[in-house]
Amino acid sequence: MTRTARTRSRAVALPAAAVLLAAAAGCAGPGGGSGDGSTGAGGGTGRGGTLVIGATGKLPNTDTVIGGAGFEGKRLVSFQLYEGLTRYELLTDTDKPPAVTGALATDWQVAADRRTWTFTLRKGVKFQDGTPFDADAVVFNLARYLDKSSPEYTDALGAAAAEYAGDIASYRKTDADHVELVTKEPNGHFPEDLAHVLIASPTAVRRTGSADFARHPVGTGPFSFVSQTEGQQIELAANKDYWRGAPRLDRLVIKALPDAAARTAALRSGGANWIEYPNPDDIDSLKADGVTIATNSYDHLWYWILDTSKAPWNDPRVRRAANYAIDRRAIAEKLLHGTADPAYQAAPRATAAYDPAGDAYSHDPAKARQLLAEAGLPNGFTTSVTVPTGGSGNLLPVPIAEALQRDLAAVGIKVELRTTDWTTLIGAEAKGQVALGSDAVAQSTTLFQSEALLPLFIGSTSPFWTGHYANPQVDQLLATSAADADQAARQTGYRKALTLVTQDAPWLFVVNDRNPRALSPKVHGLVQPQSWFLDLTTVWVG
After folding, report:
1. How confident is the model at residue 262 (pLDDT cuts 50, 70, 90)?
2. Which of 191, 216, 304, 491 lies at a CB distance of 3.0 to 4.6 Å from 352, suitable for a disulfide?
3. Residue % of the chain over a pLDDT of 90
4. Average pLDDT over residues 48-77
């Protein structure tokens, strides 16, 4: 099979591409659409300026795959500095999940064994330090991630790379323009995985050593590193020699502003001209000031992971009761002011696994009480949940949790809320632990932005804490589907798997975020895809 790009099928008709909640005449209100997937001037002919983005969480480690700030860090920093052999096409078809296309590779083939992949490399690409990208650079980076005998290997790199490169059994340069990668098992989504296996300049890594590379990162991406104040701010400059054409911006500055009020204040004062996830309560007043609020559905679920190994969450009737007890629509429309959609099933709406006929859990407190009585808990029970105070994709985690607490209390489920920071929570989950020993964890996640993540969230052998959920049918569907090189077949299998998860209800399904961001009237050219990620090459400030 040969391919240079892949288009995903739509599982459900979705609203127009990038919804604009701007106050300006002619802009769409909540639920409307711009129709062109862009904000501001829609691209236009302008260029230049400095874009200052206020991020919701901590800034990532800038060494390729280490990251550590969720997909927000990858979106705003890692994917701006680096590229993989493949990338997401984020500027077209913004009414469907993005296709995967060539980046540092132009095309690829998989052999009859379904394990041996040959990638044709793009010619003429240079790293931001002026050194050439070639097959040796690919092999160097894979060794840095996978070969413990490599001088540039570190345990941190190896652990981080395992998520997307851990399936690679061998790799080699076949000639100056081709590399061969062999997977341990058939992996139909391997090209998508490689969008996350980022390639650094071997010259730069050797000059600094892996220990110091994060202070002087060099990739092939659209922006090059300028400076950083650790934990606070990262400044990048347009890569004038970028192979896809220089970005329109001159500079890109990312600031860590985890407090929503601080982000809004920065936007209003001019300390930022773009903020991620504005406080929904501020949207009307921001629109009145001429700010554009851009949204689009994407692969996102805000939910509680329930500990299915402990009573009473080990009883599916109790888990279903909790799902019937909550008023998702009120959370999405009133608390979050239309910046999210209610989640009535496991699969996020903007994914091919979403089943339009599969919404299972309406707001039905009477049904919840009936199920609790059937489970021998007519008077309810007491439980606990750990909630992050902020972080990538977490919306308004504490207010959402408080709303859920009230809904659950109304049917007799009394919830103790415990808070922690996002980094601590995901760090504990990565070790297979529950933060603070609670019975549940509240979080945001992506299931399909990368298919490699699916087994980590719903597979019974996941190294992450998944609430001890296990369903052999789900495991089998995930394994069989992932091995299939046919995308449509994989999506069918994933839908079946997520239907079972919906029925098992190991999670409290709450909302699907619409990825809102607030842009100053001076910011133009954003194309907002159905994705966690963004292509900032079209954006300019003026």
Report:
1. very high
2. 491
3. 76
4. 92
464 in Cβ contact with 429 (< 8 Å): yes
C-alpha to C-alpha distance for 168 and 483, rounded to whole angstroms: 14
- Asked if 176 contacts 68 with a C-beta cutoff of 8 angstroms, the reply is no
Q: Phi/psi at 45 (nearest 5 deg)? A: -115, 0
Indicate if the alpha-carbon torsion angle 244, 246, 249, 254 is positive or negative: positive
286: tokens are 């921001």
Contacts 24+ apart (CB under 8 A), 133-138: 133/104, 133/199, 133/220, 134/176, 135/173, 135/174, 135/175, 135/176, 135/177, 135/178, 135/179, 136/173, 136/202, 137/199, 137/201, 137/202, 138/85, 138/104, 138/171, 138/173, 138/179, 138/199
- How much is the pTM? 0.83
Is 196 a residue whose pLDDT tops 60?
Answer: yes
pLDDT tens digits, residue range 458-516? Answer: 888 888 889 999 999 999 999 999 898 888 898 899 999 999 999 999 999 999 999 99
Token pair belonging to 68:
């550590």
Q: Which of these, 442, 441, 445, 451, lies nearest to 495 by C-alpha position?
A: 451
- Helix orientation angle between 316-325 and 365-374, rounded to the nearest 10 degrees: 160
The Cα–Cα gap between 326 and 341 comes to 14
Angle between helices 487-504 and 472-483 (to 10 degrees): 170
Segment 129-132 long-range contacts (CB within 8 Å, at least 24 positions apart): 129/201, 129/203, 129/204, 129/218, 131/201, 131/202, 131/203, 131/204
- Residue 332 structure tokens: 């999405």
pLDDT at 28: 29
**DSSP state letter for 538:** G
Q: What's the pLDDT score for residue 433?
A: 82
Strands 2-3 and 105-110: antiparallel
Going by their DSSP bridges, the two strands 292-295 and 301-306 should be labelled as unpaired
474: tokens are: 């789900």
CB 247, CB 536: distance < 8 Å: yes
429: its two tokens: 């989950």
Q: Is 471 exposed, middle or buried (0-12, 13-18, 19+ CB in 10 A)?
A: middle
| Cα–Cα distance, 414 to 416 (Å, whole number) | 7
pLDDT bin (cut points 50, 70, 90) of residue 193 is: very high
Q: Dump pLDDT digits (tens) for 458-472.
A: 888 888 889 999 999
Give me the chain's average pLDDT, please. Answer: 89
Who contacts 497 (Cβ-Cβ below 8 Å, separation ≥6)? 353, 454, 458, 473, 474, 477, 478, 481
Biggest CA-to-CA distance, the chain? 70
Quote the CA–CA distance of 172 and 162 in Å, as a whole number: 18
Question: Rounded CA gap, 213 and 145, in Å?
Answer: 14
Helix (H, G, I), strand (E, B) or coil at 304: strand
Q: Which residues are bridge partners to 314 per DSSP?
A: none
Which pLDDT value is given to residue 10?
Answer: 26
Residue 406 makes CB contacts below 8 A (sequence gap 6+) with: none
- pLDDT > 70: percent of the chain: 92
